[in-house]
Amino acid sequence: MSSKVRWGVLGAAKIAVEKVIPAMQQGEWSEVVAMASRDETKARDAAGRLGVARAYGSYEELLADPEIEAVYNPLPNHLHVPWSVRAAEAGKHVLCEKPVALDAAEARTLLEARDRTGVRIQEAFMVHTHPQWVGVRELVRAGRIGSLRAFECHFSFFNRDPLNIRNRREWGGGALMDIGCYPVHLSRFVFGEEPRRVLGLVERDPETGVDRLTSAVLEYPSGHATFTCSIQMAFHQRVQLFGTSGRIEVEIPFNAPPDRPTRVFVDDETHEFPACNQYTIQGDLFSRAVREDTPQPIPLEDAVANMAVIDAVFRSAESGRWETPSS
After folding, report:
1. Is the domain of 215 the same as that of 308?
2. For residue 75, what are the CA distances in angstroms to 37, 111, 171, 227, 282?
3. 135 and 267 housed in the same domain
4. Domain of 235?
5. Are strands 93-96 and 197-204 parallel, antiparallel or unpaired?
6. Is 14 a catalytic residue?
7. Helix (H) or strand (E) holding 150
8. DSSP per residue over 105-123, as a string?
9. pLDDT surpasses 90 at 86
């Protein structure tokens, strides 16, 4: 195997320090060599706890490090595109947290940056490459439940902290951007199609302005996807797929545990997938694509298409009509 890809991390976000960095450190193709924060002490403390060799007091310093080949960007949503573009311009490949942008128009600027700089840019949808979701798509494609007709999802948790980034509308907060992006992405993944039109309902928090409860219907050529997501409801996650001759339920669809097997129920059968860390898999597949110059797991165009659907849900909530995602 070739040498590991050397990674730098922008910021010390909770998802980075608690999940992604420790997972990538277990990878065969990834090595986290540096972290940056606008607070150098914070960067040094986090790097020290995680055993990361270098810590920088600015994002610019990390991007100037010639040894770093790829950057993981877990910054708040409104900083995804600006710093991903700057990383690309510095010659670094980019794995950027979801949602990749504030809207599809902004996401398209990443396509231009990728084409102009020649680096790889990918949205960090770790569920996309988890074996249970790869397995679900294979079951659907094999006709195990007949023809897929409906995808149904619920995803919620409670967080009303006004200082939390999920409750800052100007930073791209709210339920649809934070967790509604998952059923949008996964329904597109399993149908293998793009929605023709969407219908959305949004209830906003009167104080923060973010959407705290959002529901949507996505009309695909082959069927329908429906979901409800909320950042002010009891924690729960569930996905079911219904076909002409069977049903699939994914037990823990999004926060799959790394320390025990995951289960997918197909009618009265149980399909078990060995314990794995989806963040390790995500990092290693991207790193391997970089090192071996092979296609990355999720093309950047997929992220733009996902944002177009999210945009259409918001437009529909305002117009009260079906809306068509922009191509």
Report:
1. yes
2. 10, 19, 10, 26, 18
3. yes
4. 127-274+299-319
5. unpaired
6. no
7. strand 148-158
8. HHHHHHHHHHHHH---EEE
9. yes
Nearest CA among 247, 268, 277, 238 for reference residue 139: 247
Maximum Cα interatomic distance, the chain, rounded to a whole number of Å:
58
Q: Within this chain, do residues 149 and 80 fall inside the same structural domain, yes or no? A: no
Q: How far apart are CA 197 and CA 303, in angstroms?
A: 18
- Is 117 in the same domain as 262? no
From CA 279, how far away is CA 23, in angstroms rounded?
A: 6
Residue indicated by tokens 């972290």: 35
Percent of the chain topping pLDDT 90: 99
Dist. CA 20–CA 13, nearest whole Å: 10
Alpha carbons within 13 angstroms on the beta-carbon side of residue 312 total 24
Residue closest to 202 by CA, chosen among 184, 216, 188, 223: 216
Task: Write down the residue that tokens 């907060």 correspond to.
Answer: 173
Report the pLDDT value the prediction gives residue 2, as an integer from 0 to 100: 58
Regarding whether 192 and 309 lie in a shared domain, the answer is yes
Does residue 326 register a pLDDT over 70? yes
Is residue 35 within 8 Å of residue 61, measured between CB atoms?
Answer: no
Which pLDDT tens digit goes with each residue over 24-81?
999 999 999 999 999 999 999 999 999 999 999 999 999 999 999 999 999 999 999 9
Q: Which of 4, 19, 92, 98 is catalytic?
A: 98
Q: Which amino acid is at 180?
A: G
